[in-house]
Design brief:
The protein is of the alpha/beta class. 43% of the residues lie in helices and 15% in strands. The longest helix is centred in the middle third of the chain and has 31 residues, at 110-140. The structure holds 1,4-dihydronicotinamide adenine dinucleotide.
Length: 261
């Protein structure tokens, strides 16, 4: 007999940036565990491809929404549409994010700073504000519960040189998740942060191609390899499931041991 709480049948999961990378790794595991999955991403074509791939391997409903999470109005509209289509949201992962560094902090362009903040911080704020609004209304109507996740980064807790804007957004996501956790516990809603280490996705394509990285960074990862999107399936399923009903306000560092070595 399998452990029942990991069966997500009947639950609805929303993953922003779920059309590729870490978000796709989460969406795939959620769908395979029985959840219906809504994917929000900027690129409609990529959304369609992800939905087609997920629909092939799972039975549950999967749908994509073209939405820029940095756009407050678009996020509200997408949440209304998602709720119309699925009836509810039980789990939301605010994963959409962009990189954006500079040659040095003293030369950090303001437009890059603003753009990184708008996606990585505003985007998480808008997405989870809409999600929590729905979960609180649902709880007040007699149906409490839910789980929300912000995808942060090791950059939040380690010094990320030439990456001050990105690091600041990720530190802020951790703080936001802790605040959401305390405020929403009374509604049965948990809030946690996931901190990926070095993961092989489009975001890190330059690092993956850099010999210095292969020689100096990856050998420092105790697991001796790049992380992969599928390494995030387990934490997504756990946090979406009733198995994590008493787990809130925490940081899940998924980095092959890099932060402790
Ligand atoms: P990726 O570049 O492969 O995927 C990013 C996803 O976010 C894509 O689906 C993209 O369409 C979406 N996205 C970007 N801007 C958007 C916007 N304005 N509106 C809606 N969707 C948007 O990146 P990856 O690596 O999968 O990153 C996912 C999250 O994990 C990000 O928040 C990133 O900061 C974080 N992370 C990644 C690490 C890595 O090594 N790859 C390390 C630490 C954190």
């Amino acid at each position: 007999m399998t452990y029942k709480p990991f069966d997500l049948t009947g639950k609805v999961a929303l993953v922003t940036g779920g059309n590729r990378g870490i978000g796709y790794g989460m969406a795939e595991a959620l769908a395979q565990s029985g959840a219906a999955v809504a994917i929000w991403g900027r690129d409609a074509k990529r959304n369609d491809e992800a939905v087609a791939a997920l629909s092939n391997e799972t039975k549950g409903k999967v749908k994509g929404y073209a939405v820029d999470v940095a756009d407050e109005t678009a996020v509200s509209a997408a949440m209304a549409e998602t709720l119309d289509d699925f009836g509810r949201v039980d789990f939301a992962v605010a994963n959409a994010g962009i990189g954006g560094g500079a040659a040095s902090f003293s030369e950090f362009p303001t437009d890059v700073y603003r753009r990184v903040l708008s996606v990585n911080l505003d985007g998480v704020f808008f997405t989870l504000r809409e999600t929590c609004k729905h979960m609180v209304e649902r709880a007040k109507a007699g149906d409490p519960g839910g789980s929300v996740v912000g995808v942060a980064s090791l950059a939040a807790i380690e010094g990320a040189a030439r990456n001050e804007a990105y690091a600041a957004t990720k530190g802020a996501v951790i703080s936001m998740m802790k605040s959401i956790a305390v405020e929403h516990a009374r509604y049965g809603v948990r809030a946690n942060a996931v901190l990926p280490g070095w993961i092989a996705t489009d975001m890190t394509s330059m690092a993956q191609a850099a010999p210095a990285f292969a020689e100096k960074v990856i050998p420092r990862v105790p697991m001796r390899r790049w992380g992969e999107p599928k390494d995030f399936g387990g934490v997504a399923v756990y946090l979406a499931s009733d198995a994590s009903a008493y787990h809130s306000g925490d940081l899940f560092v998924i980095d092959g041991g890099y932060a402790i070595f």
